[in-house]
Write a structure and sequence with these properties.
It is a single chain. The protein is α/β, with parallel strands linked by helices. The chain folds into two domains: 4-12 and 255-372, Aspartate Aminotransferase, domain 1, CATH 3.90.1150.10; 16-254, Type I PLP-dependent aspartate aminotransferase-like (Major domain) (Aspartate Aminotransferase, domain 2, 3-Layer(aba) Sandwich). Helices cover 40% and strands 16% of the residues. It has helices at 16-22, 24-27, 38-58, 71-85, 100-111, 129-135, 158-167, 239-277, 304-313, 333-337, 342-345, 359-379; strands at 4-5, 65-68, 91-95, 115-119, 140-144, 171-175, 194-198, 209-213, 281-283, 294-299, 316-317, 319-320, 322-325, 328-331, 348-352. Strands 2-8-7-6-5-3-4 form a seven-stranded mixed β-sheet, with helices on both faces. Strands 9-10-15-12 form a four-stranded antiparallel β-sheet. Strand 5, helix 7 and strand 6 form a beta-alpha-beta unit. Helix 3 (38-58) runs parallel beside helix 8, helix 4 packs parallel to helix 5 and helix 9 crosses helix 12 (359-379). It is globular, with a radius of gyration of 22 Å. 48% of the residues are buried. Bound molecules: pyridoxal-5'-phosphate.
C-alpha cells in the first residue's frame, strides 16, 4: 500500500535534489569548515553558497542568516537573546496560538518574573490586533507572533505588527517556520527584526534551522562556545543540514508559484469534497487568509484519533487537533483559544499538502473519507440515532 502523505506541517519529505547534493558531505568531503586546510575550506565554500541561497529566498543579506540546530532553537535564541540584550525590560508579548517552541519559553519566563502577555484570537483564529496595540510599551523587550499557524494555516498581519513594534522601539520576532516556502517573503522591504525557519518543514533534513537577524538588531548569543556563525551561534556546523537547507531554499523559491496554484487547488478540492460529502463538518481557521496547503476540518461528535486510525488503514497520513496527554484527550491549545466547541475540537483533522501530492491521492482520499466519517458517527455515543 502506498503512503498518502497529508501531514506536511509536521514534517516533509527530503527533496531528491537536496539528498543528492548532501550525500558527498558525509563520507567524502567531511572536513571541518573552520580548518585551515583546503579539505575543510571546500566545505566552507558550500556553506557560503547555502547562506546565499537562504538569503535569496528571504530577500535579505547573507550576513543576516544564522544557521541553528532547528526551528525550536531559532525561536529560543530569538526570545532569550533579545531579553539579554535589553535586561531592563521585563515584558514579553506573544499570542495564545504559538507553537510550543515559543509558548513554553514564554511560560518559563513568566515563572522567572517576567510579565508575559498572550494576545488572544477570535473564533476564526484571527489575532486581536487592538489588544496587541494596547500592550506594546517601553517595558516590552520583545514581541513574538508567528507568521502562519501550523494547525489552522492562518496567516497573521505580520507586516502591520512589525511596523507597530518598530514605531515603539520594540524588537519583533516572528516564527515563520510554516510560512517560508509557502508565501513570498522579502525582508529587505519589511520591519521584521528576527525570523525563524526550519529545514524539515521545507523538504530539507531535520535538525537544521535558521534565525534571520536584521543587521543592527542587538542579540546576545544563546549557544556559547566556538566562533562559528560569526560568533553568534557556537557549535560545529551541521554541514549536510546547511547545504541541504540551501538547496531546499532554492527549490522553494522556484516552487512558490506552484505551491500557490496547484497545491492550493488540491487542498481546495479535498476540502470542498469533504464538506460536501460529510455532514456536520466545518473548517477551523480564517478561510480568506490561510496557507495554501493547510486544511483543518472539524467533524462533530467523533474523535479525531479514531479518524486518524481509520485513515491510517488506507495509508493516509494526517494529524488531529487533540493530543493524547496522560490518557485524556486534550483539544489543542489553538482550537481552545479560538473557542471551538468541545465536540468539534475533539474531531478535528489537519490535512497539510505539499508539491509531492497528486490529483490521484486527493481523489483516493475523497473516495474513502465519507465512509470513515459515517462509520464513526454510527458508533458515536454523542449522535442521536
Ligand atoms: C515545526 C515547527 C517548529 C519547530 O521546528 P523544529 O525544527 O521541529 O524544532 C516551530 N514553529 C512552528 C510553527 C512549527 O511548525
Amino acid at each position: 500500500m502506498d503512503t498518502i502523505y497529508f501531514d506536511n506541517n509536521a514534517t516533509t519529505r527530503v527533496a531528491e535534489e537536496v539528498f543528492s547534493e548532501i550525500q558527498p558531505y558525509f563520507c567524502e568531503m567531511y572536513g571541518n569548515p573552520s580548518s585551515m586546510h583546503t579539505f575543510g575550506g571546500q566545505v566552507g565554500v558550500k556553506i557560503r553558497e547555502a547562506r546565499e541561497r537562504v538569503a535569496e529566498l528571504l530577500g535579505c543579506e547573507p550576513s543576516e542568516v544564522i544557521f541553528t540546530g532547528c526551528g525550536t532553537e531559532s525561536d529560543n535564541t530569538a526570545i532569550m537573546g533579545a531579553l539579554s540584550a535589553k535586561p531592563n525590560r521585563r515584558k514579553v508579548i506573544t499570542s495564545r496560538v504559538e507553537h510550543p517552541a515559543v509558548l513554553a519559553v514564554c511560560r518559563s519566563l513568566e515563572r522567572h518574573g517576567y510579565e508575559v502577555i498572550e494576545v488572544g484570537v477570535d473564533a476564526n483564529g484571527r489575532l486581536d490586533f487592538d489588544e496587541l496595540d494596547k500592550q506594546v510599551d517601553d517595558d516590552t523587550a520583545i514581541v513574538s507572533i508567528m507568521y502562519a499557524n501550523n494547525e489552522t494555516g492562518n496567516i497573521f498581519p505580520i507586516e502591520r505588527i512589525a511596523e507597530l513594534c518598530k514605531s515603539r522601539g520594540v524588537v519583533f520576532h516572528t516564527d515563520a517556520v510554516q510560512a517560508v516556502g509557502k508565501i513570498p517573503l522579502k525582508m529587505s522591504e519589511s520591519e521584521i527584526d528576527l525570523l525563524s525557519l526550519s529545514g524539515h518543514k521545507l523538504h530539507a533534513p531535520k535538525g537544521i534551522g535558521v534565525l534571520y537577524v536584521r543587521k543592527g538588531t542587538r542579540l546576545t548569543p544563546y549557544m556559547l562556545g566556538g566562533h562559528q556563525e560569526g560568533g553568534r551561534r557556537a557549535g560545529t556546523e551541521n554541514v549536510p543540514g546547511i547545504i541541504g537547507l540551501g538547496k531546499a531554499a532554492e527549490l522553494a523559491g522556484a516552487n512558490l508559484a506552484e505551491e500557490n496554484s496547484r497545491v492550493k487547488a488540491l487542498r481546495d478540492k479535498l476540502e470542498n469534497a469533504i464538506l460536501k460529502s460529510c455532514t456536520d463538518a466545518r473548517i477551523n481557521g480564517d478561510v480568506e487568509n490561510r496557507l495554501p496547503n493547510t486544511s483543518n476540518i472539524s467533524f462533530e461528535y467523533i474523535e479525531g484519533e479514531a479518524i486518524l486510525l481509520m485513515l491510517d488503514k488506507f495509508g493516509i497520513c494526517a494529524s488531529s487537533g487533540s493530543a493524547c496527554t496522560s490518557g485524556s484527550l486534550e483539544p489543542s491549545h489553538v482550537l481552545r483559544a479560538m473557542g471551538v466547541p468541545f465536540t468539534a475540537a475533539h474531531g478535528s483533522i489537519r490535512f497539510s499538502l505539499s508539491r509531492y501530492n497528486t490529483d490521484e491521492e486527493v481523489d483516493f482520499a475523497i473516495e474513502k473519507i465519507p465512509g470513515i466519517i459515517n462509520r464513526l458517527r454510527e458508533l458515536s455515543p454523542f449522535v442521536a440515532k
